[in-house]
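Quick note —
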Amino acid sequence: MAEKFDQLKASINEIADIYNAIALLGWDQQVNMPHGGAEDRGNALATLARIGHQKLTAPETGQLIEDAAVELDSSDPDSDDARLIKVSRREVNKRAKIPARWITENARATTTAQTVWEEARAKSDFALFRPHLEKIVALKQEYASFFEPYDTIYDPLLDDYEPGMKTAEVQAIFNEVRPRQVELIKAIVDRPVIDDAFLHIPYDEKSQWDFGVEVISAFGFDWNRGRQDKSVHPFTQSFGIGDVRITTRFDPDRAASALFSTLHECGHGMYEQGVSQNLRRTPLASGASMALHESQSRLWENLVGRSLPFWKYFYPRLQAKFPYQLGNVDLMSFYQGINKVEPSLVRVEADEATYNLHIMLRMELEIALLEGSLHVKDLPEAWNEHMRAYLGITPPNDGLGVLQDVHWSSGMIGYFPTYALGNLISAQLWDVMSMDIPNLAEQFEQGEYLPLLTWMREKVHRHGAKFEPEELVQKVTGSRIDAKPYLHYLVTKYSEIYNL
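Predicted structure written out below.
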């Protein structure tokens, strides 16, 4: 009888409940909270974060983990219970190095910063946000110090989102990807410009919402265990396997923005909904890492949602909703329009060929901020310089530049690389899935997505966070994270679109 393991499980369940409550308050802050609620919400989040941290890092919890490990010593190392002990030990050991005082201070600082960021972004005024970002950068520098020695100050922060991965590994991958993507972009620049003017005229917001709901319902998003709302920046938040929230946003100048935001967040949401019920209320009841999470969101958004077979089914339905805007736009013109390659200011609106450059830019700036070679006061200028160097364009204001992303206000420094890594993993998964389900394109043309979702449920979703990201990618694809499938996908797709 595994008495100590049962006690550990009960304790872990309580801790999970606390962090789910924190997540719910965070979701409400971005969706419903009035502007004046930042201070009170920050206090509530700080208190809950401190309580959760203290329970997680209590000596009793650590002892329960070791006692339970002895009880289960002969069990399958890949079983749910054995993996729960392994992941819990890793989490407790890491969190134990962080003072409760830092947890409280960080929760207050990021809650206030997020509200100020929303105002600064709307006003395109970096000066409003600057002191809050300076505080967050200082907190993150201190956070990294808890994990010395390290190879680079960025390692402990990256590890929060991509367990076990090092900055040098990511940089090596990016060094392989960058020249190939730059080469592709240069080839496309010499081709005739695609006309996408039909995407930059007014579209009724309610009809956009309804179409997005129709699509992700076909994908398999479970509305009995999920919902969608509006927010300043699209995001997904799970409070448990049975309550997964996604958000989207609308841009009056970009008709495709809401739809592809909805598809992206749906990918995140279905991952959370697909975790095995056996992992409920444990640290395993989430994605393996943010790169695995982004592999799901980017796959449904791009490899599915920007594919021609997808639109062979859905485009007539979209035309019926927007006859004035799209009645005279044929399918191929629409398909080319939503896949137009053009250096753009905003990451979330970037095409697939340029997207990873936005990520590399942000990672470089984050490392410079943490190392102290770049000061927050100089960040807008550095941002603009990097945009010119990477994409050949300069933001006209900070709202379309350094203030465009929510991540820094939320303290999520170290997160950005996972988007590009997710792109790479999505193509690796796609290649394997296409061999297992050879008639995927025909299914998409009929609006059928259950086989794809079922494959993902079996190969990826159900495992939650049982395996480290590289380990799970290896299990499913036979190799570690590899840039080659994604680069092949990009070159093949855009060679066809642009007749390269």
